[in-house]
Amino acid sequence: MRLLKEIRNLLGNYHVKSGIYHYYREEYKQAADFLRKALDSDDNITSSDRRTAGYYLTLTYLESAQRFEEQGDVEDALVEYAHAVEVSPTYPDIRCRFGRALERIERPAEAVEQYRHAIANHSNYLDAWVAKGFCLLGMGLTEESADAFRHACEIKIEAVRGPFETGIEALSKKSIASARNAFHQAFLFVPDLFEDHHRKALKLLKEEDYEQALIKIEAAIELNPFYPDLYNFRGVALFELDRVEDAVESFRKGLSINPKYIIPKMNLAFGLLHLGDVKEGEALLEEILETDPHEPAALAKLEELRTSHIPDKPKIRRSVNRGSHR
For position 143, what pLDDT does the model report? Predict the structure, then answer.
């Protein structure tokens, strides 16, 4: 989830806005305090604000844990991972990182339990199966370890077979572009390198270093052109660099991959409004409210539009710098 700064400022709940403000400043304790207050409040917090608070509170605990690990303070990291699991118990990546931290202080049985939770919520999570296999091997549980590695092998083979067969089918239909994308996914995708670009891009976005973030996002897109979040991140960076038309195109691309994804739809609506396309921007905000009638930023922006009666501006078509993604 990466909303434009303009949208974050329209979130309704004071504690949610304050928590997000401190999160982006990497003031994790203050962020957690505000977001906890939002979730624990007896006030009528909307479902949208509650969802946003839960998401950012999870990120707050997760990044706080990573900071403690980098400082060599694994015990405090474990406390933060436990808090993150409490807020988002079905988030497999947290479970996997929690398990690795437990292994670092030689608590393998607890680590295996975290890997099991990760797999229960994402049965094809290769990293969790591999980590579980090695952990069980270290505990001398050879049969269970062999079973974990068998599952990991099946997942890894299928990760190549699936897009390979898609590529062969595309070739039979003379669809060269689709075949190229499928074979790229089968043979050139490097998960660890992708994840490195992805995480660095998110860190740079948070630091508002949009030029460098864009470089990392483009590199990640080259490795995995079907990951919709990347186009939303790319759109945010482009928007903040005042390349609004390019940003709009990127938000559209993310939505074309996952039409139900509300975040790029919100960002796209605001981008279109900046370009003067009030009609489409307003229509998108109304679509968002059909899904979530209490979404505060969409409500606030629609109210502003309807009270100011902003006319559509003539659309200006310019050549668009599409970057390196295909």
Answer: 97
Count of CA atoms in the C-beta half-sphere (13 A) of 84: 27
Which three-class secondary structure state does DSSP give residue 117?
helix
Q: Which residues of the chain have pLDDT under 70?
A: 1, 42-43, 309-326
Question: Which letter does DSSP use for residue 268 in this model?
Answer: H
CA distance 180 to 211: 29
Q: Using the 8-state DSSP alphabet, how is residue 192 labeled?
A: H
Inter-CA distances, 278 with 87, 116, 246, 281, 302, Å: 38, 49, 18, 5, 10
CB within 8 A of 280, min separation 6: which ones?
A: 269, 272
Task: Give per-residue pLDDT as tens, 128-168.
Answer: 999 999 999 999 999 999 999 999 999 999 989 999 999 99
Helix (H) or strand (E) holding 264: helix 262-274
Going by the DSSP 8-state scheme, the letter that residue 13 receives in this structure is -
- pLDDT for 31: 97
183 by Cβ neighbours in 10 Å (0-12 / 13-18 / 19+) ranks as middle
In angstroms, rounded to a whole number, what is the distance separating the alpha carbons of residues 142 and 125?
21
What phi and psi values does residue 260 have, to the nearest 5 degrees? -90, 0
Kindly report, residue by residue over 71-125, the tens digit of the pLDDT: 999 999 999 999 999 999 999 999 999 999 999 999 999 999 999 999 999 999 9
Residues 65 and 85: beta-carbon distance below 8 Å: no
Give the number of other Cβ atoms within 10 Å of residue 161's Cβ: 12
